[in-house]
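README: folding subset

This subset contains proteins for which both the sequence and a predicted structure token string are available. Records are stored as plain text. Below is the entry for DeoR family transcriptional regulator (137 residues), shown exactly as it appears on disk.
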Amino acid sequence: RNDLAFLEKQGIAVRAYGGALICDSTTPSVEPSVEDKSALNTAMKRSVAKAAVELIQPGHRVILDSGTTTFEIARLMRKHTDVIAMTNGMNVANALLEAEGVELLMTGGHLRRQSQSFYGDQAEQSLQNYHFDMLFL
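--- output ---
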């Protein structure tokens, strides 16, 4: 695990379930910030979010991955009630703070500062303790 963490910090590999994936040399080793990513394809993200949020019903348990499209989904969940949402994204969690009818769970784990997301064993293990109706990536 320490070797994988070292390779990930060097931009050589990315940890994945069961091991690691080698980074493509054509892929930039610096991850764009959430702010940079949120400025791209804004209208499309909002359109996807609007359609996605209509699928969420009272009593649902949903996972919202970290990301800018899932942030838009979380932002639109303000009026939802009786929903449990888990995320590994700090930006998504912050958006869900305003959704009083949504119980917020976070995975925890190691923090990727640029993407404001948690990853690693703790994040993966926290997902195993729950059953969900929907997953938004």
